[in-house]
Amino acid sequence: TIANNASDLRDICIAYDTPHSRLVFGYTYYNGSNYFGALKVATVSQTANDNTMTVGSETNMVTSSTTCVETSICHNPSDEKMYITFRDQSSGIPENGRLSGTVGTVADSGNSITMSGSITAAASGDVQKSSIRTKLIYNPNITRVCLFWTDVGGVNNTSKAGTITSNGSNVFSF
Predict the structure, then answer these.
(1) In this structure, are strands 144-151 and 158-164 parallel, antiparallel, or unpaired?
(2) Rounded CA gap, 41 and 136, in Å?
(3) Pick from 160, 139, 136: which is nearest to 11 by CA?
């Protein structure tokens, strides 16, 4: 089972970690007080007559008090990390949420991921406005993860784009 709390599941995303041959599922669900971000790592095995998926335990995307919506995930083969973006709608965040992200590393064995434990919030301009949708994709031509989002801060919804770097650490910048 990917998500145990499927009654209020939303924002499902998936990425493939090629060096570790693992799938990473990201999702959010209502935990009784806010939308909680979680991840699970899975291995898919195939035999002549059967396909089996072995799913690991749930890992917190960020702290359980962080309200995560509109999640997206992408593997960066340049630094072998999983990049996760979301709209942080925790109490006290201005502008109806802020585009934020975190980084995780898939374990060499087993079905688990270790998260950085930190959140990077976008620092300036339109990125801080309430982003209604976010998507990540790796661009091998520039060896960076690219972020696309919609900005609803103005009258018209507009699409925006940018790149993300991590410099090999577990914290990245927009």
Answers:
(1) antiparallel
(2) 18
(3) 136
What does the block give as tokens for 102?
A: 């975190």
Q: Residue 148, Cβ neighbours under 10 Å: how many?
A: 16
Rounded (5°) CA angle 167-64-162? 35
Which residues fall within 8 angstroms of residue 57, CB to CB, at 6 or more apart? Answer: 40, 111, 112
Report how far apart the first and last C-alpha atoms of the chain are (Å, whole number): 33
Distance, C-alpha 170 to centroid of its chain? 14
Query: Do residues 106 and 22 make contact, with C-beta atoms less than 8 angstroms apart?
Result: yes
Q: Would you give the distance in Å from CA 85 to the centre of its chain?
A: 5
pLDDT tens profile 6-48? 667 888 899 999 999 999 999 988 877 778 889 999 999 888 7
Model pTM score = 0.84
Q: How many helices (H) and strands (E) does the chain have?
A: 0, 13
Residue 164: name the closest of 40, 73, 67, 38 by CA.
73
Residues forming beta bridges with residue 13, ordered by sequence position: 26
